[in-house]
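On to our target:
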Amino acid sequence: MSQFFGVAFQPYVRHWTGTPPNATTPQWNSYSQQDIVNMLEVIASEFTKISTYSMGYAGYYSPTTPWNQVDSNCRVAGAAAELNKLRGRVAIEVAQGIYQQSDVALQQAEIEAAFSAARAANAVFPNTVTSLVFTNEYVVDAQTTNAVNAMIVANKQNSHNLNLKVGVRSNTFGNITNPSSPFYNELKTLIQNCDFIQCNLYPGSNTPTPQDGVNGVSQAFNTIKSAVAGINSQCEVMIGETGWPSQGVSFNNTNNNVNNLLAYFEAIDKWASQEGVITYLFEAIDEPWKSNQNAQDPPWQGQNGAEGHYGLWYLNDSGGYTKKHI
């Protein structure tokens, strides 16, 4: 894989147990740092970078809960640093995610935790954490865009003091190509304050082939990149998520099988390398919890859904990780 290719990552990869409608998944805090090191060792065989989603806070935690005692996403940066120390080089670099929290105190705890995790990881092995990604698919209107911009502005200098870049991941950056968008001006201000943006771009509905999917993503990306260049030429435009599932019903109703997943990965890797675009595949390892065994709707998230099948690897019955193959 190319130097521009990374993967979106969370460690929640174990399978359902029990029988629907009472099937369950493992606790969110049940993955140890060593579990995650094991996952990252597999990922590092093909990729050099990951982008994460959160620091592990949720409504069932008090904001005063220590940052390293929440859900297992809190352990990812430390696991990457441990792996890098073992390898004696940066085998995996981390774009550390900061999830949007409805509670103000939890949001601040999430942000402070990201700084704590980055400092701790980079003390173990320098340059493990390279950036902070403020929220995921939260930028949907003027209000949420302004909220994320406020986070960026409040934390940008502290981030730069730690040699960390700041940015946002969203599926709505296409609105920056449309001056008539109801939150165009707010998006423009946000982009002016970001070091980078990560665009979540997937093949369109009923895309017939993986190459057609890459062509469509490329067109959308280039339109966004051109618009951003006119607003902030220093803002790097990346792809924060793109992928093709190996089975199930997906939100974009593509033909989902392992052959198409691998063909899409290969084609988007080639494109990212040729264009010099940092691109994070969705995703590293299947997360079965995303295909809810106890639900039907919406179909792409239900038990026949594709949401749990975007990974390049899956957790096998022996507790190891198998790469999908034809």
